[in-house]
Amino acid sequence: MKRNIYLILLSVLIFSCQTPNTVQIDDSEWSGTISASDERNAIMNSFTDAYENKDTEAALAIFSEDAVFHVNDAELTPKDVVNAFMTGHEYYDDIKNIDRTTTTMFYNNGEIYTNYWYTWNGTNKKTGKKKIKVQKGVFSYFTFKYKYKIMKKILLLMCLLGIALPYYHLINFLILNDGSMEGFWTEIFSSHPVSMISMDLTVAATTFLIFLIYKNRKDKLNIMKYIISLFLVGFSLALPLYLYDNYDKN
Fold this sequence. Notes:
The chain is α+β, with helices and mostly antiparallel strands. The protein is elongated. The chain has a 4-stranded antiparallel β-sheet with strand order 1-4-5-6, covered by helices on one side. Strands 2-3 form a two-stranded antiparallel ribbon. The chain has 2 domains: 32-140, Nuclear Transport Factor 2, Chain: A (Roll); 146-246, no CATH class. The protein has helices at 2-18, 39-52, 56-61, 78-86, 142-176, 184-187, 192-219, 224-232, 235-246; strands at 32-35, 69-71, 74-76, 92-107, 112-124, 130-139.
């Protein structure tokens, strides 16, 4: 009896080791997470709705004017792509994309792809026969690239302002005090409102410093330039500089 129990326990142990009960997700470059509810899915579906309804204006409104589509080795404008889609209505009536499945994939390297599967239906204008074709398409990362460029420009502008504005006031203080820093620290705590702003920035900058040290130890992030920015200029430069460098990765 004991021998049978041991055999059963051994079998269970071996089976448990061979059959993991959870999916292992790694942190490699092309691993990541997938979402069926991301807002980009709705954008993809709105493009399909415009295509079905032969609504060229609604389809074009989804994209910025300088968006670029890469189809094989060709670069196309939004107008080129939308016109190509709408050409189908010249040969087919009642075009529909049914059985839609739309998901957005967020890769660890910062790439974002919205994937789209569907069944294409249309009635041939010449023969009157209905055609059904299962399609697999990828409406991908380039749709969101323009947003990244705009945000990066904004963050770069914040870096420049983060240097110019604090140093403007520092230089004026030094001019009024004949190049001396005497009285500088007492003035930043000269009243409760000013002290409130000083404490707010002190806590924020300290929190960011702790975060940088954590990222350095956890992810081996080189934080030297952020530390230098924090102490030579201030939080106004260090934070936008960090966001600028790491925006695409997030």
